[in-house]
């Protein structure tokens, strides 16, 4: 099938690459000419494991190309997939201006029947809004499809090629059938439903996963007070098939470009139909407070006197294996440390450049190695669970620091191992080791 993907970001690029991988002819379009220029030159604008190899394969097979020319890409394609951003507005609602813009550009370019699928996460009713925009600008026939995306950054290629399920929302049976055909090489877990339900499935899924995270974080906070170990508690809970083990990892809470914005957007969606989503409001509140547990733990170590201290931070993105720093907990944590007069020494394997831009203030020294960042520090905070942090030589680490204080915001280290070191070690939902 000839496919155009509009929006060559984390989702659009990976989706386009994967459709090419399974044999389709894909053009990835973006209005960011610098991004397209990089891709045309064989460079990758984001960090995503495995992506480079798949892009090279698609281009070699002549099935994958990149352009800023939306009209000619639309005209040559049967299926147009919209994967533009839907960032949050200040009130939490999804900003649909990129969706509207893409719809207008598609309509102006159409010269015959098209299937138009929305992969971006959009509030219920957006596909109808998009159809109205197109209908108001062209008489060419088209079918709307909701095709929500569930990939996770860091494992995006694997998730796209091995999805748990694919949800297809469509009114037209013929279009739904074509979507089933397109995706059946990837999975037999294909669900065809109406467009509004498909749009809702995406928000409901992210809201539920966020709820699991905030739930286990609250359990962790209680564990700390009652002397239980949240790792054991989560294991015991997760063995119940009705609960399942995933998303029961206590830490400093969720971040990233999806959960924070999608939970807030769903609260707004509910609000528009006069429903107060009380549970989700609490999930968001718990998550926001959880990130500051690191600061509270540091304050405890230094009797509230943080000014003048040097604190090393390992991990700047919201999770490992990504350079995406949107809504990363590290931003608020580091900002608070700086406000308190702390000097921060930071390290992340891939996200430092993006984070530095996002933070946009002085007071942090940036390091190319974890050990270098920890050197001479009064305390070390681990904010992302990169595997390389768990592998570190604890003896060497301790020797390089001014004081052996380790606040583990992601429960990266094994408590038994930590017992054999001289660290004052505090993690999330486990007894602290003095
Ligand atoms: P992104 O910001 O990385 O990429 C969006 C791209 O769209 C940008 O490169 C932008 O320049 C481009 N764009 C905007 N308007 C355009 C237009 N009219 N023509 C051409 N290009 C245009 O965003 P993302 O992280 O890839 O997310 C895209 C959507 O997918 C969002 O709705 C998001 O909620 C959803 N989603 C994201 C993830 C994730 O992990 N990132 C997972 C599932 C769903």
From TrEMBL:
This is UDP-glucose 6-dehydrogenase. It catalyses: UDP-alpha-D-glucose + 2 NAD(+) + H2O = UDP-alpha-D-glucuronate + 2 NADH + 3 H(+). InterPro entries: 6-PGluconate_DH-like_C_sf (IPR008927), NAD(P)-bd_dom_sf (IPR036291), UDP-Glc/GDP-Man (IPR017476), UDP-Glc/GDP-Man_DH_C (IPR014027), UDP-Glc/GDP-Man_DH_C_sf (IPR036220), UDP-Glc/GDP-Man_DH_dimer (IPR014026), UDP-Glc/GDP-Man_DH_N (IPR001732), UDPglc_DH_bac (IPR028357). Keywords: NAD, Oxidoreductase. Pathway: Nucleotide-sugar biosynthesis; UDP-alpha-D-glucuronate biosynthesis; UDP-alpha-D-glucuronate from UDP-alpha-D-glucose: step 1/1. The keyword Protease does not apply. GO terms for molecular function: oxidoreductase activity. Its EC number is 1.1.1.22. It comes from the Bacteria. Belongs to the UDP-glucose/GDP-mannose dehydrogenase family. Residues 312-415 form the UDP-glucose/GDP-mannose dehydrogenase C-terminal domain. It comes from Paenibacillus chungangensis. The keyword NAD applies.
